[in-house]
User: Which sequence fits this backbone?
């Protein structure tokens, strides 16, 4: 495994190809739809969920085997079948088209590896294992969920508000260490907002 470069992809309106129609493909399609991707599924058979999304015009489905040309024009490709040979063919086609690809059960061949993500508002905490132990990534994300509560999403909102007003040189670390998270947990959001801005103002310059 080589060292990866973690990123957060903006897929809204962009074409993403999913090859496969089973449980894994269904989970991937659900995540992609949440991200606003324009999802196309290629598989001889698909799950009831994928078929329902197709009926609702949320995804496009081609009920046939994968063909190399399916990858053309896709921003991202997901190989989610239970056939290693098909998944490998998807990887080869995607690499030829310079398209990032995630292949089920073959992290080494994948150029994109989905992570287990904990979301708190606009906060995203992603856990990855370079494709080697996805079950462990899910477990670690569940452990983090007990430590990172909804108050962190509120914190992100307050920081984003204050960022527009903060002066150059403001000490963000000191401001975030000033106890505002405790105020948010206690339901005193206005107090946290005022405290954050006061800390930033006093620490700038």
Assistant:
């Amino acid at each position: 495994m080589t060292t990866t470069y973690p990123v957060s992809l903006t897929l809204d309106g962009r074409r993403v190809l999913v090859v496969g129609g089973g449980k894994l493909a269904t989970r991937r399609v659900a995540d992609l739809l949440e991200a606003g991707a324009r999802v196309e599924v290629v598989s001889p058979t698909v799950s009831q969920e994928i078929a329902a999304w197709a009926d609702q015009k949320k995804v496009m489905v081609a009920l046939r085997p994968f063909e190399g040309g399916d990858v053309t024009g896709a921003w991202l490709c997901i190989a989610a079948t239970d056939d290693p040979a098909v998944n490998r063919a998807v990887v080869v086609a995607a690499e030829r088209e310079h398209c990032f690809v995630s292949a089920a059960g073959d992290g080494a061949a994948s150029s994109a590896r989905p992570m287990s993500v904990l979301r708190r508002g606009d906060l995203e905490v992603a856990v990855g294992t370079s494709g080697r132990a996805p079950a462990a990534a899910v477990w670690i994300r569940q452990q983090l969920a007990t430590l990172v509560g909804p108050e962190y999403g509120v914190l992100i909102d307050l920081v984003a508000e204050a960022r527009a007003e903060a002066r150059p040189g403001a000490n963000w670390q000191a401001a975030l260490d000033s106890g505002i998270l405790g105020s948010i947990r206690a339901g005193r959001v206005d107090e946290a907002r005022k405290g954050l801005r006061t800390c930033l103002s006093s620490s700038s310059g």
